Structures are given as structure tokens and as C-alpha cells.
Amino acid sequence: MAYMQSPDFFHYIEDHRGSLLKAIQRRQRQNPEVKKEIQEPVTSSQVVAAIDKIVQEVLESLSKDEAPVLTMEDRSNWTNIEFTESVGLQMVKNCTTRKVRSDNPRSAQRFALTMKLLSVIYKLVQTDTYATKRDIFYEDVQLYGSQRTVDSIVMDISCMLKIPRRSLHILSTSKGCVAGSLLYIEQDGTKVDCSFNTSGVLVPSNVEGVTHLRTAARYILIIEKDATFQRLLDDDFCGKCGPCILITGKGVPDVNTRLFVRKLWDTFQIPIFTLVDADPHGIEIMCIYKYGSASMSFEAHNLTVPSIAWLGLLPSDIERLYVPADALIPLSALDQRKLLSLHKRPYVSCQPLWKQELQIMTERKMKAEIQALTSLSPTFLTSVYLPNKLEYGGWI
User: Fold this and answer.
1) What is the pLDDT of residue 40?
2) For the segment 44-66, what is each residue's pLDDT rounded down to a tens digit?
3) Residue 321: domain span
4) What sign does the CA torsion over 181, 186, 192, 198 have?
5) Cis bond upstream, residue 321 (ω within 30)
6) Residue 201 CA to chain centroid, in angstroms?
7) Partners of residue 99 on adjacent β-strands
8) Which one of 130, 155, 171 terminates a domain?
9) 219 catalytic residue (yes or no)
10) Whole-angstrom Cα distance, residue 228 to residue 222?
11) Residue 393 pLDDT
């Protein structure tokens, strides 16, 4: 593995770093408000004022003997979402809305729960305390009914107030892990050194409160699955192919993991690569990190990193490496529908190399997990595949 420390490796990384820096500079020129949104978090007084305005409107309706109505942006409607290469999927300015009425049997409960959660947020902000969505749910399980209901309404409130969720003092329990050359201090003063933990460190719940980030990493590698993440740590990948930062969202990434990836990019501006399964699900996970999701498009500026590169596993790698047929899996009906959906996504049209990879999968009707590389050699992923990809620029 000595050749991984060669000047050629760092030459490739530095070249890519330069192009990434140009990308973010271009992004800021095209979107001058982006930098402002990132650097100026919403204050507690602004949150309180925004909630006061909603409550005032409800009281005014009641004083007129009218049924109160909450107006929500239809955040999951694709017609309200636009795509730009510099930001990803973001909500259009004048999007369509939906009404949550207090006098409609179908939405009255939703209205009541929204007002309840607004009061919870109000108290959290006023007392400068934080709570996880899970904490809120278990405060009154019978009232909320399900964790999903709490999660959905919190996102509705964040979108309605146009305030990031973390500024509402509501946190999520992190599931992602990070390892490698990274040190930082959490909001409570805890010093974290990710290089010392052999199984990874949980992504902090309050990403905004993380300060004093330091690294010697040349690149960041996002890994789809925790099992692959642990395999790389077991094989001392960071020592052999580092210095680097490894991070996994353990499947579909939670908001904290996405926020953390974005914070790492804003802070260090080093290349970020993704390692996902060569299947529609893995590709969509990569797209969430890179371009965001429809449901969170209202907060795209804080969550997406459009400069992320697709390192592997590429469908073309399966053919190039002669991965045995018995290590491949036929696409299910669900996979094929997801693949068709990906073909229609707006960001695929600006990625001709992605189109080629999707077409290969469509024609072969086969997919492969990262673990399929073990059919070539038990250590093929860490001793051959990733080192050669990184050295010779095999990403798109």
C-alpha cells in the first residue's frame, strides 16, 4: 500500500480539490444569499416572533367567529420543486399551498397537533433548552399517535416558518457515524477525536453547536452501509489510504448526518466521494447527499453538497471487473420502478455519465451490493478497488 502515499495520489486529490473550490465559488456567485443563510442562524427572538405571528392570526380568526386555518407550502409536490446544479432540489419561491383547517374533520386533528407543537417549540426556545423529536413523542404518546406524525409536523412547521429545524430547538437522535482524521468540540464542551474510536463516533445531535473542527484529511468518503463502514475501519483503511474522514448514514441518511457532511464541506472544502451499492436504492441515497430530497427541499441550502462525486460501486465496474454472475442480483419490480424514476429526475439530465451508468443497469436488469467485490477477493474492496479508484480518478 506504499504507493498510496505517492505524489501521484495527492496530485489527483489536489486537482480535484481545486475544481471543487471553483464549484463552490461559482455557487456563491450564482446564489449570493447562500452564504448569508449559512453564516447567520436564526435567533431565538426571530423564532418567537414567527410563532407569535401564527398565533395572532389564529386569534384574529376566532375573534371574527371564523374557523382558524394554517397555510402550508406543499413541500412534497414535485411541481413546487426546481433543480439547479449549484444547490440541488429546492422549493420554488411562489409554490402552491395547502390548507390545514380547524373545522374540517379530515384536518382538525392535524391543526390541533400543529398548534400543540408550536407551543412546545415556543417553550423550548424561550427557555433555551433542546428536545429530540423522540422526547416530544414520548411526552404524550396517545396524543401524537406515532413518531412519524411528530416528524412530519415538525418539518411542516419548519417549512411554514421558513426556519431551519435546529433553530426551533428540536433535535433528532443521530444514527450516522464518523471516523478518521477529525477533531471537534461539541456544544457542551466535549472534545471529540474521531481517530481514536475503532468503531466510529456518532454524528452529533446538535451539528450547529459543533466548533473548532480540525482535520489533516485529503478527502471524505461517504459510505452507504454501516457494515461496509465497519469493514473499512477493521482493515485500517484510514491508515493505509489516509488521512481521510469516513462517514456513514447507515442507509438513507438522517438530517443530522446530512447537516454534518455539509458542515465538513463548508469548513474544509476537500473532495467528498460516495461509496454505495450499484442499485437504484444506493444511487438514490447518493443523490440525497448530493442534491437533496423533495420533502426537505425547503432547506436545501443547508443540506446539499452538489460537488459530491460518485466513486462507486458503478454499474460499469461490474462489467469491467468481471464480477461473477452468481454475485449479482436481478432487479425486482420495485427496483425497476425506482430506476425509471431516477431516469426522470431533473439532475440526471445534467449528468451524462450517470445516464450511461443507469442505462447499463437498465439493460442488464441486474444490481450488485458492495459486498459482491468479495467474490473477487476477501480484501478486494480495501486493498485494490478503493486505492486504485482514488489514485487513478475513477469517479464521476
Assistant:
1) 60
2) 899 999 999 999 999 999 999 98
3) 2-30+174-392
4) negative
5) no
6) 17
7) 71
8) 171
9) no
10) 11
11) 82
What is the chain's percent helix, strand, coil content, to nearest 5?
55, 15, 30
| Residue environment code for 15-54, b if the CB has 16+ CB neighbours within 10 A, otherwise e | ebbeebeebbeebeeebeebeeeeeeebeeeebeebbeeb
Whether 142 and 273 map to the same domain: the answer is: no
With beta carbons less than 8 A apart as the criterion, state whether 295 and 329 touch: no
User: What's the CA gap between 259 and 247, in Å, rounded?
Assistant: 12
Reference 262, options 233, 242, 237, 291; nearest CA is 291
pTM of the model: 0.83
Mean pLDDT by 10 residues, the chain (396 residues): 38 48 45 44 88 93 91 82 86 85 90 94 92 91 92 91 87 90 93 87 90 95 95 92 93 93 95 95 94 86 92 92 92 93 86 91 93 91 92 85
- Burial (CB count within 10 angstroms: exposed 0-12, middle 13-18, buried 19+), residue 392: exposed
Q: 243: cis peptide before it, omega within 30°?
A: yes
Rounded Cα distance between 23 and 373, Å, is 33
With respect to residue 80, please indicate whether it lies within any of the assigned structural domains: yes
Q: Is residue 349 part of a domain?
A: yes
Strand partners of residue 245: 180, 220
If asked whether residues 62 and 142 sit together in one domain, one would say yes
Distance between CA atoms of residues 249 and 377, nearest Å: 26
- Please report the DSSP string for 175-221 in residue order: --EEEES-EEE-TTS-EEETTS-TT-EEPPS-GGG-EEEE---SEEE
Residue entry with cell 390545514: 100
Torsion of CA 212, 214, 220, 224, to 10 degrees: -50
- Taking a C-beta distance cutoff of 8 angstroms, is the pair 91, 75 a contact? yes
Which of 3, 122, 130, 138 is an active site residue?
138
Q: Does residue 200 sit within a domain?
A: yes
Residue type, 84: T
Please report, in angstroms and rounded to a whole number, the separation of the first and last CA atoms in the chain: 24
* Other beta carbons within 10 Å of 159: 22
Residue with cell 417549512: 159
